[in-house]
């Protein structure tokens, strides 16, 4: 245990008290223990704070007076972190005893890694298809830009046109080995604090969705890579605080913002 790298855990939560309780209990079973656990409650109304303070008094609990979103909440928690690394968790993620050990060991040993993400499994043990993926290649970028000019008159009013264009972001990957990837989603990731601070954390223009892939791109631009760690396993409880229609709308907005920012450059 004396050789465990120093790290903090930041968990964001919004009206997810029961999920958060399970997540925090999972942390208690970890082989590697963080220097600090920070919960950022994004203006919940379900007595999350009372539960945390009563059942997990060692956790640093922050309550947002307004609903600022998960991306800004992650940055807020990161500002209180101690150590070399930060692990970001969603409140519906249940770690295994060796999840932190495997994720942070890989990051610590891989000097060009700025961010690493573990393998997400649902409650049935199935893989989450949007866990991670690869960047566009040149041909995809060129085709995407050509399509943009043809589809431009329809993009503001047609979700089908936007979806067709953004399908060039679809990727293929291998879940059975740890590999270099273009991006990982933010549900279970670890970052080096130094480059994270250098890029000023997550881009808060992404209220929700795509803040992880965006961070991967900005790390890449300062010389750091993103890796998928296949044996750092966690379970995603599939609990959502927002209605499906609202989530779908936020996902579309963030996907389009990400695509424009990194592949169309306007």
Rounded to the nearest angstrom, the distance between the terminal CA atoms is: 48 Å
Low-confidence residue ranges: none
Number of strands: 11
By helix and strand content, what is the structural category?
alpha/beta
Q: How would the global form be characterised?
A: globular
What is the total domain count?
A: 1
Q: How many helices in DSSP terms?
A: 9
Strand percentage = 15-25%
Radius of gyration: 18 Å
Major β-sheet annotation: 9 strands, mixed
Order of helices and strands: EHEHEHEEHEEHHEEEHHEH
Q: What name does CATH use for the topology?
A: Spore Coat Polysaccharide Biosynthesis Protein SpsA, Chain A
The CATH first-level class comes to Alpha Beta
Summarize the structure.
It contains nine helices and eleven strands.
Describe the structure.
The structure is a single chain. The protein is an alpha/beta fold and 266 residues long. It is 39% helix and 22% strand. It has helices spanning 17-28, 48-55, 70-78, 99-109, 138-155, 159-166, 193-198, 211-220, 244-264; strands spanning 7-13, 36-41, 60-63, 85-90, 93-95, 113-121, 132-133, 179-181, 183-184, 188-192, 225-236. The strands form 2 sheets. Strands 1, 2, 3, 4, 5, 6, 8, 10 and 11 form a 9-stranded mixed beta sheet that branches. A two-stranded antiparallel sheet has the order 7-9. Strand 2 (36-41), helix 2 and strand 3 form a beta-alpha-beta unit. Helix 1 (17-28) runs parallel beside helix 2 (48-55), helix 5 (138-155) packs antiparallel against helix 6 and helix 6 packs across helix 9 (244-264). The relative contact order is 0.17. The model has no long low-confidence stretch (mean pLDDT 86).
């Amino acid at each position: 245990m004396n050789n465990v790298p120093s790290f903090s855990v930041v968990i964001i939560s919004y009206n997810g008290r029961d999920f958060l309780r399970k997540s925090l209990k999972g942390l208690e079973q970890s082989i590697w223990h963080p220097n600090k656990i920070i919960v950022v409650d994004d203006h919940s109304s379900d007595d999350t704070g009372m539960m945390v303070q009563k059942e997990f008094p060692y956790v640093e609990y922050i309550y947002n007076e307004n609903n600022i979103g998960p991306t800004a909440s992650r940055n807020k928690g990161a500002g209180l972190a101690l150590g070399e690394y930060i692990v970001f968790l969603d409140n519906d993620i249940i770690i295994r005893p060796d999840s932190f050990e495997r994720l942070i060991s890989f990051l610590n040993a891989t000097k060009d890694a700025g961010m690493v993400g573990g393998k997400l499994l649902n409650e049935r043990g199935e893989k989450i298809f949007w866990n991670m993926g690869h960047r566009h290649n040149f041909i995809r970028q060129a085709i995407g830009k050509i399509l943009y000019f043809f589809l431009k008159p329809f993009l503001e009013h047609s979700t089908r046109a936007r979806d067709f264009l953004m399908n060039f972001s679809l990727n293929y990957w291998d879940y059975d080995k740890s590999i270099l990837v273009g991006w990982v989603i933010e549900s279970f990731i670890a970052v080096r604090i130094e480059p994270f601070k250098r890029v000023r954390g997550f881009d808060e223009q992404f209220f929700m969705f795509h803040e992880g892939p965006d961070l991967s791109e900005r790390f890449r631009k300062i010389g750091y890579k993103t890796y998928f760690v296949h044996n750092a396993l966690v379970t995603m409880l599939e609990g959502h605080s927002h209605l499906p229609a609202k989530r779908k709308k936020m996902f579309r907005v963030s996907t389009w913002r990400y695509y424009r920012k990194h592949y169309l450059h306007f």
